[in-house]
Amino acid sequence: MSTVTTSGTWAAVTPTPPNVSGLNTGHVSWGVPVGGGKSGYSFSGGTIEVKTDGSEQTLGTFTHQNFPIVGGGVNQFDVDLVVRIRFQEDGSDRDFSFRFHHFETPNDGPTPDDEVDLPTRVSPESVTIDGEKYAAVITGFKRNGEIVNKFFSPENGANSADVVAVLSRVGVPEVVIATVCHKGEVKYTQADEYVEIVNRGTAHADISGWLLYADDPGQNFTFPPGSTLKAGQRIRVYTNEVHNEWGGYSYGSGRAIWNDKGDTAHLHDAGGALVSDFGYGTEAP
């Protein structure tokens, strides 16, 4: 475990929208304002304890300042962030690079919220700790206690979320069950129950044929052929709902899968080996 301080600068915007300013600082902005101001991103770091045991940590706080602008026809572009991590033990600095994808939506219509995605979650740079090479992996945006894959911002305001990341060994996937939402809000069927699975590693994982097991006979979900969990990606397996933004996986069950009082969820690979288990609820073993 190491104590580090983080800071960030925005290195590039590609393709370039009009009126870009603030490159190589902690706040980059763009666009011709229509009333309020320019839109843009900021990143603020802090002091954290970095572990190499797969624990997710807050890398810093991402803020999207979203105002109506004229974008000159460039409504989708990539924004590159360089996060500098200073290890306090020896004062050394390491830079880790990531890419955010921005979708500047029309200011009116059915979906006016701007969208921020993470197409590049694994830093190309690495650091050697105790003889092992580790890269930084962003596993999502954390808001109100929930970690999500994408970030949506309404117009005319600032919207913030923690950027959650993990130090993982280079070239290795690490798939784990992150949480079990075992009490759905849909009456009787609890169709909105789900299990969330995350790849905290630096390499993609082929999860075709993997089995999610609810600790009761007949409550198995097998991932179909071609299922891949990208590095840093989170997916959910719902009881009886399909959410494409979470991978589109569902048991298709007309009754609840997960015990309201608690139990254990198990994830096995295609060969039957246990990959991860997760105790949930008040009666978890």
Question: Care to describe what's here?
Answer:
- With 285 residues, the chain is mainly beta.
- The protein folds into 2 domains: 2-169, no CATH class; 175-280, Immunoglobulin-like (Sandwich).
- The protein has no helices and 25 strands.
- It has strands at residues 2-14, 27-30, 32-33, 39-44, 47-50, 57-66, 69-70, 76-87, 92-103, 114-120, 127-129, 132-143, 146-148, 151-153, 157-169, 175-181, 194-199, 205-206, 211-213, 220-222, 228-229, 234-238, 249-250, 263-268, 274-280.
- Strands 2, 4, 6, 11, 12, 13 and 15 form a 7-stranded antiparallel sheet that branches.
Profile the largest sheet. 7 strands, antiparallel
Fraction of residues in helices? under 10%
Radius of gyration: 20 Å
| Count of separate DSSP helical elements | 0
Distance between the termini: 29 Å
Mean pLDDT: 92
Q: What is the H/E order?
A: EEEEEEEEEEEEEEEEEEEEEEEEE
Structural class: mainly beta
Strand and helix map with partners:
Blueprint (H helix, E strand, L loop, with lengths): L1 E13 L12 E4 L1 E2 L5 E6 L2 E4 L6 E10 L2 E2 L5 E12 L4 E12 L10 E7 L6 E3 L2 E12 L2 E3 L2 E3 L3 E13 L5 E7 L12 E6 L5 E2 L4 E3 L6 E3 L5 E2 L4 E5 L10 E2 L12 E6 L5 E7 L5
In short:
The protein has 285 residues and is mainly β.
Give short descriptive properties of this protein:
6-stranded antiparallel beta sheet, globular, 25 strands, 7-stranded antiparallel beta sheet, 2 domains, mainly beta, Immunoglobulin-like, 285 residues
